[in-house]
Write a structure and sequence with these properties.
alpha/beta; Glycerol-3-phosphate (1)-acyltransferase; 8 helices; globular
Amino acid sequence: MSLLVLALVTVYTIVLGTLGILLCLLVPGGAALIPLARTWSWLVMRSARVRFRATYDPTLDPGRPAVYVANHQSQFDIPALVLAMPTDFRVVAKRALLFIPIFGWALWLAGFIFIDRGNRERAIKSLDRAAARLRKGTSVVIFAEGTRSTDGSLLPFKRGGFVLAIQAGVPVVPVTVQGGREVLPKGALRIRPGTIDVHFGVPIDTGRYTYESRDALISVARSAIEARLKKT
């Protein structure tokens, strides 16, 4: 089954990625890619027999730009989160994805933000671009751990997304993604059918935080995600 899913994902990526490139060239800004990204995600989930459930805290305002900060357990977290996102968004991703043919090119044209963690100066410039997007009203998604957890426990959170939220003056929305590890854990090849839960928590106002107190903001967001993981 996993080989068949991989073959189908490759086809979906080539077809929709190529269409996404053309649309981004015709309609600059990247908004045209998001519906295609949701279609790609739906096809991937459907092909793998993976479902998703999304829940939203009543205080969440999708119309307000925010930094959505999520945990990361599986490659399937990505399509589940893309489908669950309640608003237009761009993702902060590792720079290596930029060099994947078609897929990376489409994301770049759509304005997704690539971070080179090995180059501090480039990383800062990337975050500045992300802050500019936030100020224009587009939300940003970031996986706070920077990589997938192997055992489901939270890894240390990277600071970039939180500094970005403080810099742009927007809330941080803690997003808890659970169930992906049972579908496809890190390092595994076999995909198992299952359900991924995506919960959007209470937005955290960053107005009282500064660059110097960013670790306190990280602690609040981490605690919210950790509590949700334990609850479910």
